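SAMPLE LOG
Freezer: B-3
Tube label: C17
Construct: single chain, 150 aa
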Amino acid sequence: MKNKTIKRVIKRRKNHDIFSKKKRSQIMAAVKGKNTLLEKRVFSFLKRRRMKFKTHYLDVIGKPDIVIPDKKKAIFIDSDFWHGWQYPKWRHKLTSDFWVEKIDVNRKRDIKVNRSLRMKGWKILRIWEHQIEKDFDGSMKNIIRFLLKR
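STRUCTURE (predicted):
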């Protein structure tokens, strides 16, 4: 019994993860890609203010979270983890090449999407998950200001 515990601790130190690969995979697969609680909170706030917008609009590259097509305005609500906020500071903590590659690809795609949309005349706002969580009212003011600006 003691030997198994020691092996688990050593393995945990090596992998820096308290979950098995299978369990971690299940946890990460359960993370929603759209209509997250945070997104729903933002959508609800905007709807209460009678703002008209589309969500996860397929006709625009990158499927922005919030879109006003006729104004060519797009808002992306970026997850700190999936989109790599301050990624260079914590990249070394990732224990799997899979996650390093996944986040690298996401960050590169974000840059391509921004460039492509701007070249087509779109205005873009990217707002980070932690910004909304830390200062919801301030973040909503920024979003409304962005959407109303000509």
